[in-house]
Specification:
Length: 355
């Protein structure tokens, strides 16, 4: 069943840079041996519609295996979609050939999760950061070196370390190298796939502040993927919560964090660490039962119903649509038959299900 495009907190005057409509990405599961045949599909992303305004940040959160990184690679054109449409800056880029996609890649860049494995250890930092200039033939020789050193200085690295190898830098410095590489061609969209999860907390703050400064300076749009809800809250303008390939809830961060409506969103937020001990003690801790179901054979109806403390028979029979619930702003949408009400104690509901 088709899902209407999610607003992701857009106002009428917002300028949309990226519009994703009903994107599906399935990976075939094949048998081994000489004759390989398809026996099923991993439903990594299933009918997802989202939009990213120009100059804004969309945070995408969810457990491991929910499809966040696959969705990001579909947006970037790194993997083909099974169905659906990706529109970037007014142009449909869904099925572009490699040649037609080449100039678009200058506008869409990625920062990867692991600063240790995303950099070639055998290449010097100057060559790594300068690679986009070489691939797209936008600068050569002395001009390229000067551009790379300017980028290094902009992200807080010493330009004199141009000839060092990645192993000579700390984890935070390596991630700054990744940021410099992504920034080289002045893209319009940067996809940040867990960019700070492998870093110490103090270094995380430095990298997040750098990303915020770059966004303000260059008018960048970010698709920011993370497990840490507090990090997403800090950097995002709007938030989408993903579970088993589908969007469970989406809206402005004030609405999603202030009055979460989907039980999964409430459970995620209850598990997030709080800096204030009093706030941590007062927070309801919701323990979800069971593991995330297999994306090869997802549950019928609502995909969250086997673990949901509010599940009722309707939840296993009918798939809920992503829509605005009574009392919520139009920009706040939830896919749930029985959304969480203000003041409702989901922790108690979960305990009653267990007893």
């Amino acid at each position: 069943m088709s899902t209407p495009p999610a607003s992701t907190g857009l106002d009428a005057g917002d300028d949309v840079l990226v519009q994703v409509d009903n994107v599906v990405k399935y990976f075939p599961v094949r048998t081994g041996g000489l004759v390989r045949r398809t026996v099923g599909y991993v439903q990594a992303v299933d009918d997802v519609s989202l939009s990213i305004p120009r100059g804004k940040t969309l945070g995408l959160v969810g457990e491991t295996g929910s499809g966040k990184s696959t969705f990001a690679r579909c947006v970037a054109g790194l993997i083909p979609v099974t169905s659906g449409r990706v529109v970037f800056d007014g142009r449909d880029i869904t099925n572009l050939s490699a040649g037609a996609m080449r100039p678009v890649r200058r506008e869409i860049q990625m920062i990867f999760q692991d600063p240790y494995s995303s950099l070639n250890p055998r290449r010097r930092v100057g060559a790594i950061i300068g690679e986009p200039f070489a691939i797209h033939k936008t600068a050569t020789g002395t001009e390229r070196k000067r551009a790379v050193q300017e980028l290094m200085e902009r992200v807080g690295l010493n330009p004199e370390h141009y000839n060092r190898f990645p192993a000579e830098f700390s984890g935070g410095q390596r991630q700054r190298i990744g940021v410099a590489r992504a920034l080289a061609l002045r893209p319009k969209l940067i996809i940040c796939d867990e960019p700070v999860s492998a870093l110490d907390v103090s270094i995380q703050a430095q990298v997040l502040n750098l990303l915020a400064d770059l966004q303000q300076e260059y008018g960048l749009s970010y698709l920011f993927i993370a497990h840490d809800l507090e990090v997403v809250r800090h950097v995002s303008d709007s938030v989408a919560v993903m579970y088993l390939g589908r969007i469970a809830e989406v809206g402005p961060k004030e609405a999603v964090y202030g009055s979460p409506r989907h039980p999964y969103t409430v459970a995620l937020y209850s598990a997030a660490p709080a800096a204030d001990p009093d706030a941590a003690a007062a927070r309801q801790r919701i323990i979800l039962t069971g593991d995330v179901p297999s994306p090869i054979d997802p549950p019928s109806g609502c995909r969250f119903h086997p673990r949901c403390p509010k599940a009722q028979p309707l939840c296993s029979e009918t798939e809920p649509q992503l829509e605005t619930k009574a009392g919520d702003p139009a920009t706040h949408q939830t896919a749930c038959h029985f959304p969480v009400q203000a003041g409702e104690n989901l922790a108690a509901a979960g305990r009653s299900e267990l007893t």
